[in-house]
Amino acid sequence: MSRYRGPRCKKIRRLGALPGLTKKSPKAVRDDLRNPSRSGKKSQYRIRLEEKQKLRFHYGLTERQLLKYVRIAGKAKGSTGQVLLQLLEMRLDNILFRLGMASTIPAARQLVNHRHILVNGRIVDIPSYRCKPRDLITAKDEQKSRTLIHNSLNSPPHEHEKVPYFLTLQPLQYKGLVNQIIDSKWVGLKINEFLVVEYYSRQT
């Protein structure tokens, strides 16, 4: 299944806030209020499915990519759900978004794909690059690269855009530093990761 490129507010109305997907605000009226047939008690399967979809659309992943991360997390030490969130949060595109250097994760992915971003002084054009503690993330020393990031840093702030403690932003230098691996409490999405793991465990 390919990466989602359809209407973004439609997903927010169905799943709730997805700050990584878009900064736009959905209409106040939810789908289930406009369509009574969709209201009522949700099945356990639907609850798990919607939590999985939140994770997928927020981080901009394909189904195959998310399944791969779940399998990697399952082989690591510790809670599979928490390791999964750490893997996703440490992606380069997400780090750029959490620093405020990109307005959304799709915008961050475009910055990386177009070679505007350096990690430790070297261009990285892979959005899924896994950042590590002490990684220094900077804009390429070109006017276009810095203008794109400057526009994002100077856009109206949102509550979710507060830079978490595990990152340090130096906006005047267009730099960001990864201080440590993220604590699950600082994940930029309201999610029950255990339901996501349970969803995949029941699919295999």
UniProtKB/TrEMBL annotation:
Top-level taxon of the source organism: Eukaryota
Domain Small ribosomal subunit protein uS4 N-terminal: 3-89
Name listed for the protein in its UniProt record: Small ribosomal subunit protein uS4c
SMART domains the record matches: Ribosomal_S4 (SM01390), S4 (SM00363)
GO cellular component: chloroplast; small ribosomal subunit
Biological function: With S5 and S12 plays an important role in translational accuracy. One of the primary rRNA binding proteins, it binds directly to 16S rRNA where it nucleates assembly of the body of the 30S subunit.
A matching Pfam family: Ribosomal_S4
